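Input.
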Amino acid sequence: GTLNGSTYTTGSVTSNCQINAQFEPIKYSITASASLGGSIAPANQLVNHGDVVSLTVSAKSGYSIDSVKGCSGSLNGSVFTTGVITGDCGIEANFKLNQYTIEVSAGEGGMVSPPSQMVNHGGSVDFTITPEQGRNIASVVGCNGVLNGNVYTVQNVTSACSIAVRFNRDSFIVSGSTGEGGRLTPATQTVTYGNSTTLNALPDEGYRIKSIIGCEGTLNGNTYTTGSVTSSCQVSAQFEPIQYTVAASASVGGGISPASQLVNHGNTANITVVEDSGYSIDSVTGCAGTLNGGIFTTSAITQNCTVQATFKLNEYTIQVNAGEGGIVSPLNKVVNHGGSAD
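Output.
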């Protein structure tokens, strides 16, 4: 016989005979393709009519499966299973480059830009850190980044990560300088931006504060309080000796000079005492001093004091020697300078 389509026509039958028919499954071609970033296998296969087949979808490092479609199939994990195959069909797998979120947290005292960022796998990103006035960057950690100035760079990102930024207040040095006669304490100190501080002025014995300037401060007693510190600055103190008045006066019969003078604490003063003609120094007292010739020297001066000089009129003795034959009365007489006697 002969086959025409699905009809088999025998030849002329002249005896018993048998017809044998063989059947085979209808096969269909399934083709699979993948975009950049992954693969699908097998790429090509022949499938019997009515079969269901599975294909393995694999993403490369840094990529993930975006979509797989075709042959009425569905994706479960990394396995794509077709529907019942009744004809040739194609499957297309698409992949996407992974993106990761970098979260940024900033403590008080500044800001970070951008506050968060989406980054492609293997990419890099820069974050600009801006401290507030009077602040500085204390630390930046996370995502294996590197800080250069105020830019924090994260490179070769392969997963989501977070960055933590902390700020410090700026600190400045307040130093004290002094001239002779005292000191400032503390001599040096560190002050946080915007704060004020105090320094104590300690004059040496016999000195007092003359002036204190610097760091926009004010003096109250011996305590100097700075203004708000926004940069390193210096406080300068000047001291001056405490001075006392040594006054001098004299009675009739002489003079004393100087009549008044200022003497530094702890020093001595010299005063010149001069008697008038016919007078002599009777006494010079005051300021715990001593007289040496015509110079009166005080002891160390620690307070105001007065020197008093007194003079006395000179007295002279007149002695009389009388020869034989008479008498003189009185034989001796004391007479004041410039006086007369009978």
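The chain has a mean pLDDT of 95.
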